[in-house]
Write a structure and sequence with these properties.
The chain has about 475 residues and is of the alpha/beta class. The chain contains 14 helices and twelve strands. It comes from Polytolypa hystricis (strain UAMH7299). Keywords: Aminotransferase, Pyridoxal phosphate, Transferase.
């Protein structure tokens, strides 16, 4: 058999491929906004290449970093205040915190391929930590209930890969990377569960029961919640787990569990592990790691805790998805997970980050923002740009997340527009009708000097929008 010529051709589209289901014309605000046009251009279509999806997905952090890089961020990041990156400060100068390793020995075994579910000593250490902190007097987890993964997103991808045909519900707003992850797989249908701004985006147990009653068999949420900074705590979390038991798999992203300010910063943390009845029959998957709690995002060491059958499947998925976590860093992590050491570390973490949270809230209040509720967890502020006193004049045109973000670039300040947290798998909805459009997520993860620099820039943008005089030497970037 012979073939003459190419049997597959890639045709150049005559119009931009739209990734949003937009049947109506753009609003005048969007038409006149370079930022809105740039956002659409970056997400709606690109030049075709054989075998390449013409649409480019990116998380909010990636998109904002790309825009900041166009203004010089990559050339001189130290001169910027990056309040967009979801990372904690990583230096060893937090009072009461243990020093992180500056060098790691590499054993002969660490030079070899490691098990895709992680090395047994680290899996045992994770199980022991959870048993000591959350399972006293209850059935304990074993190493077979733990899967080590190369970072949280890799863990979520593994979970998504092993799910059966199902409806998966997720709250809005939530962690922006979920959106693209939920678009990749066809073994489940992603169903949004919008939460109400009026009651602080609270996940009510009754709402979970409604989702399950209409067919949901998997529920995914961050807890503590990114980006709102709220925590679902007991007894409400226990009630949600009771509702899910035997009816739905509950996936709890607990990466911010250490950043808990609700208990007086006593070092205690909250986890769904406390409410599990049977570690091998309760379909609860808990994902956490060194990234946030231990301020080691570069290590890419995380874990998934759950029933043994799930863990076996997750280990198998690692063999074709990512190959497993770095073995030398797994070995180095074992000693960090001693339960009393972790408790001391969490207390130091909570005291330090609560101080930063209070500083940011105070500064925003002085600028004129009305903070409706103080976050009791994470290191994020979900900032309502319309909640200013006095209100900005309409001509200011910075009361939506995209334009506010763009205005801050001239001050070398980065935040993440709220629309990235209005999760939109497969881009079925028009995000410019989003209830998150007038929000930004502001991180107080960086060190205090960076926070001060960033808030100074925010204050200048607001002053300029109100018509106040801002001296030229106060502006960080000249157009």
């Amino acid at each position: 058999m012979s073939f003459s010529g190419r049997r597959v051709s890639v045709l150049s589209p005559t119009t931009t491929i739209r990734r949003f289901s937009t049947s109506k014309d753009l609003s005048e605000n969007e038409k006149s906004s370079a930022t809105h046009r740039q956002f659409r251009d970056a997400h709606e279509g690109h030049k075709p290449h054989a075998g390449l999806d013409a649409s480019r997905a990116s998380t909010g952090v990636v998109w904002t970093t790309e825009r900041a890089s166009e203004k010089g961020f990559l050339e001189d990041p130290a001169s910027w205040a990056n309040l967009g990156q979801g990372a904690p400060e990583a230096d060893d100068d937090i009072e009461g915190s243990f020093p992180r390793p500056t060098s790691i020995p590499i054993t002969s075994a660490a030079r070899e391929y490691g098990p895709t579910a992680g090395i047994k000593p680290l899996r045992e250490a994770v199980a022991h930590l959870y048993n000591e902190h959350y399972r006293q007097g209850k059935q304990g987890y074993t190493w077979e209930n733990v899967c080590i993964v190369p970072g949280g997103r890799a863990g979520l991808i593994r979970i998504a890969a092993i799910l059966g045909n199902s409806y998966l519900s997720f709250p809005i707003p939530d962690y922006s990377a979920y959106s693209e992850m939920l678009s990749l797989f066809r073994n489940f249908a992603a169903v949004p569960m919008p939460l109400s701004e009026a009651d602080g985006y609270h996940i009510h147990p009754d709402k979970v029961a409604e989702e399950i009653a209409r067919g949901t068999s998997v529920l995914l949420t961050s807890n503590p919640r990114n980006p709102t900074g709220h925590l679902i705590n007991n007894p409400e979390l226990a009630k949600i787990q009771d509702i899910c038991r035997g009816r739905a798999t509950l996936i709890l992203d607990e990466f911010y569990a250490g950043y808990n300010y609700a208990n007086g910063c006593d070092g205690l943390t909250s986890s769904g592990a406390e409410n599990v009845v049977d570690v091998n029959t309760d379909d609860v998957l808990i994902i956490d790691g060194l990234t946030k709690r231990f301020r080691l995002p570069g290590w890419r060491i995380a874990w998934i805790l759950g029933p043994k059958e799930f863990v076996d499947a997750l280990g198998s998925a690692g063999s074709y998805l990512d190959g497993g976590a770095n073995v030398p860093f797994q070995e180095a992590a074992i000693s960090m997970l001693e339960p009393s050491l972790v408790h001391t570390e969490m207390k130091a973490l909570q005291l330090h980050f609560r101080e930063k949270r209070n500083y940011v809230i105070d500064r925003l209040t002085q600028i004129g923002f009305k903070i409706k509720d103080i976050p009791d967890a994470t290191f994020y502020i979900w900032l309502d740009l319309t909640a200013l006193d006095p209100p900005l004049p309409p001509s200011a045109n910075i009361s939506d997340g995209l334009n506010f973000f763009n205005a801050l670039l001239s001050e070398k300040v980065i935040v993440v527009p709220g629309i990235f947290f209005d999760l939109n798998p497969a881009k079925r909805r028009d995000l410019f009708d989003s209830p998150c459009h007038h929000f930004v997520r502001l991180s107080y993860g960086p060190k205090m000097d960076v926070l001060k620099k960033g808030l100074d820039g925010i204050e200048r943008v607001i002053r300029r929008a109100r018509g106040d005089e801002v001296l030229e030497d106060e502006v960080a970037v000249q157009d």
